């Protein structure tokens, strides 16, 4: 029941900017939004090409500055879309048909080849009719080539057509809503050099700030065209209908603090061939085999495949780039990398595409020097603090209460190093890269925290931090942060004990002591796990008098109004409980869930997937299904209303978590894999593939029946529906669940 | 033992920028720094003239903006100094003697006339020697005239001198340390019109933003000069030595939201005459009679007189201006008005110059519309919230955690309305202006706060506020804020009950209930009054490893490092205890003092005066004296190191509080005046004048002896050294204190 494509019928609207996001193409590095193939009056659209990690830097201006503030913005650069091919009839005066009537008939994104095919109906300003079919494809073999095939058919026009292929030289400022922090606000100054040649143009883009040494070379080549056609010359045209093909290739070099990225142009110029389609098909077949998910609900099947396809298109693979909050599908959040990668997206890669997971984690290793430096700026003399939002490793958050104060990113990264190791058993990575990350982040906590008397004994406390929930800031002992730091330090002690990295016994003992005695706030009165020291005492947000139009709250209320109320943007304490299922009883989890659910707005796209997973764990299967529907289809139904700015990449990952961590109750504890069947009644069948310590496995859930199969690899002892099982090759752990 | 002048021997250094501040002249509206009388290479100085309330506005740029943030900077405008009179010998090519060697021989500021006399020794670039005596005086009769008398004596030069009087037309940006939030950072764009005329030039300054309708007219007139001398023409000069006199007069019009300020130019042009000196002498004699302080220590006598003289020079008197954090002695803190006026400066005016106090409080009444609007931006639908820092009434703080979150300013203003009423019994003011201020600020608290179970009963709590101590931000139940809001609401209830303002009985009951049940945090374990809910649990700042050069902390540590430690910039909880002596026992106060003193850096100039007062109350007289020395002489010894940017006006007021609230233990409770003798052993005698409900009184303290005398007015029942006394006209309450 694999779905092989997404069509226009599967999406929320035909608003162009929305479609640009939804049908965006990428290879993890080069991202091209699906803008219309004409220039003109398109201010409402974002006709851009993005290169993962290619950014401009500008000094941050503060209303009131202070010591240690982040110094520079890093803003992913919006390059001109390479999709433009303007044409004009004899009667129309300009090649830029901004006022032409144009409708999209169909759009088909093929998950097996990565080919996007669109059909447009065009009425020119002199009332002629044309049909235009555009096929687009990015080669997925890491050559960074975009292929475009334009097939123009005249329906009622005979005469000469003039064409031009405008790669616009001015890269102007993105128009943006100045008060919405989720939209990228600063465009770079760029210099470029334009080298026209026969049927070819080459553009070299360079960022203005020399110190970043970033350069892009874009080669744009006409590979196939009707006789007599000359695009880069004098716009000579042809009669009636015809086909034009273009290849745009990118190469780049970025210098990072510790290394260089050099991606050369391919030697040959290729036109659209079946060979390239076949190469893509092979790569994607591999991908779908490793990451296969089958689910009985057709909408959800389409949703999860779309989501995984887009995750695959967004993930950097060269070890020095990561996955931005909106991938390379839009310039939102300035193209920054956040904790989203580790906590929402990496599990999918770790369990099914470990080679990509390793590259993404290598990025964190590569920016350790910047993280060490950042810790010093915060007054901590040992260890490292990762930037809350960054491309080059330096902090780029201009609002520290919901930026740098989210120290938890340190432990999030360490947690994911541990998950990667638990699932892959990649000893080399842990020894050579992971251990240093874990040790340095743990060292930060050790100095950052302090010992205080709590509940009659000395416990380790963390003051003035911000947890994942950005509707609460600068609190004491955020449960999530404390719980994650506890794991971070425990893992560091384990690494020292097992000689994955050098360190002294005293430090190891300190890690163990702080981890063991980490304070975890609990509200005795209400018997709930407390988000922080004071949260249970605060007044609840006035939900009754808040109109639906006032959400998301962050766009309608002063932060001070939000901070002084008990209201959550997203799962916070519950996220920690999701990650550590063995920390609390189901009764406790239920009380916590019932306490936090009514005060959570889900104004963040990182929320619903977690609520779905925990509803599964609590066996509230209808609720789990309902939250999962919103997760899986978030961008396809435009639930948050802002998919036009780019996909919610964390939620793409969250939709895989909802199936595997939620419906299949999957987790690893003490190195042991757990699977529990929580399939909602609306779903009759769910199966998915994963890799675990060298094995390829498949989990199959049906109502009342759980099967786990090893496809390749050695036998495994694991826990299925609460019972320990020994699973051998080609045997099936088959459990009748209630 | 009155001191009648300040001389160069009384001050810390001869650094020019420092002297510019210390010898600044003002009449509450027009402020002129004591810059050298030549233009030239003076980048290290601030040769400016400031007009109280005359500001430029520019949009605030945020690194990351959000809903409800303050929109515009308001920056007091630095006008060109009118003190310049450049001259040149025949051999020197330019009138601008930037490279001339110039030393200041003496400077004398006369407290009885406001006349500043300075003597400079000059060596020109062609090695000639001159002596220049400059006398400066601002008429204190509200006519805003500056008189300058230049007496130039040639010591070894005969020949023609060329003169020019440069009023520079470009008002350029103030150079400022970008990371120091205490320094004004933005200069205005100004337009000006320059109208030269015979022996006169007239300049009209207008701010660029038309909506503020602010205009200054500056008339600059040569009133006396040697024959043949023509300054505004072709720089014709005269031989040898001579005297030149200049009068600079200002007029202005500002539009504020509810009213206009119009200050016309005087009809006549006057030269420096003894009449004007005599008029000033009369005004200042009056001032010193009303505000007389005599203290046996000569240094402290000079200190307090200097401080009061400068307070008098800085206070706006037209009801629509206030006292800026640096008065009109420098552009620091952008010329903004803070809570400093109410809590540190107004008591002096209330007790000794009530007509000025009333004008200063009228300013707050005049900006009530802006405060109402600000409350709406914060999500509070009734009442008013005063801007943390402002000139025109709108919030100008670009960092809300240490700006808008200092809600306590609301209660500070209400407190001072009450103090003014308690001391003056001005019924009209309370009915017509004060009651509305108190009611609207109280209404804000009522909706802002919330009821929570604390210590087994429902109490009124205030979440996510910042108290006076800016090294702690966004905390729950800041003791100071809660205690002040408690008084604010109790006073509002009293005003309603006594029909000073209309309101309903239900609201009155709510004020009483919230006030009575206000939660005041207390740490049972350590038996200390807690700064806020969590403060006692936080780790103490690492004082042992903090070098002396690392203070003030705000310039050397990230706010997050500061916020997560128990460290105070200034008195916070202790300030509340200072204001309400009857709240706690002396034993409790002593514990609190001993708890907070070691963690207070006094990085704020608002701190030491409070520590002195409380040391007096605790009868730790040596400590009280020591803190008082630092308070009284703060700018004269340049204790904070930044007097060059302007005087610490709050501390000027604090030095009066140290004497009266401290050494004389003065306070009002339940309408009754209290005096207690805490005179330090270093001081043999202290006496001061005050006004209390229509009476003129004098307090005289000696070691072991307290006298309170009514100079004019009806008998008074008050408390002297703990005993209730009835004091009649010309009788003396004479107490032998221990």
Automatic annotation (TrEMBL), chains A, B:
<dbReference type="InterPro" id="IPR005194">
    <property type="entry name" value="Glyco_hydro_65_C"/>
</dbReference>
<protein>
    <submittedName>
        <fullName>Glycoside hydrolase family 65 protein</fullName>
    </submittedName>
</protein>
<dbReference type="Pfam" id="PF03632">
    <property type="entry name" value="Glyco_hydro_65m"/>
</dbReference>
<keyword id="KW-0378">Hydrolase</keyword>
<dbReference type="GO" id="GO:0016757">
    <property type="term" value="F:glycosyltransferase activity"/>
</dbReference>
<keyword id="KW-0328">Glycosyltransferase</keyword>
<dbReference type="InterPro" id="IPR012341">
    <property type="entry name" value="6hp_glycosidase-like_sf"/>
</dbReference>
<feature type="active site" description="Proton donor">
    <location>
        <position position="470"/>
    </location>
</feature>
<dbReference type="GO" id="GO:0030246">
    <property type="term" value="F:carbohydrate binding"/>
</dbReference>
<dbReference type="InterPro" id="IPR008928">
    <property type="entry name" value="6-hairpin_glycosidase_sf"/>
</dbReference>
<feature type="domain" description="Glycoside hydrolase family 65 central catalytic">
    <location>
        <begin position="305"/>
        <end position="656"/>
    </location>
</feature>
<feature type="domain" description="Glycoside hydrolase family 65 C-terminal">
    <location>
        <begin position="666"/>
        <end position="724"/>
    </location>
</feature>
<dbReference type="InterPro" id="IPR005196">
    <property type="entry name" value="Glyco_hydro_65_N"/>
</dbReference>
<feature type="domain" description="Glycoside hydrolase family 65 N-terminal">
    <location>
        <begin position="16"/>
        <end position="213"/>
    </location>
</feature>
<comment type="similarity">
    <text>Belongs to the glycosyl hydrolase 65 family.</text>
</comment>
<dbReference type="InterPro" id="IPR037018">
    <property type="entry name" value="GH65_N"/>
</dbReference>
<dbReference type="InterPro" id="IPR011013">
    <property type="entry name" value="Gal_mutarotase_sf_dom"/>
</dbReference>
<dbReference type="InterPro" id="IPR005195">
    <property type="entry name" value="Glyco_hydro_65_M"/>
</dbReference>
<feature type="binding site">
    <location>
        <begin position="569"/>
        <end position="570"/>
    </location>
    <ligand>
        <name>substrate</name>
    </ligand>
</feature>
<dbReference type="GO" id="GO:0005975">
    <property type="term" value="P:carbohydrate metabolic process"/>
</dbReference>
<dbReference type="GO" id="GO:0004553">
    <property type="term" value="F:hydrolase activity, hydrolyzing O-glycosyl compounds"/>
</dbReference>
<feature type="binding site">
    <location>
        <begin position="339"/>
        <end position="340"/>
    </location>
    <ligand>
        <name>substrate</name>
    </ligand>
</feature>
<dbReference type="Pfam" id="PF03633">
    <property type="entry name" value="Glyco_hydro_65C"/>
</dbReference>
<keyword id="KW-0808">Transferase</keyword>
<dbReference type="InterPro" id="IPR017045">
    <property type="entry name" value="Malt_Pase/Glycosyl_Hdrlase"/>
</dbReference>
<dbReference type="Pfam" id="PF03636">
    <property type="entry name" value="Glyco_hydro_65N"/>
</dbReference>
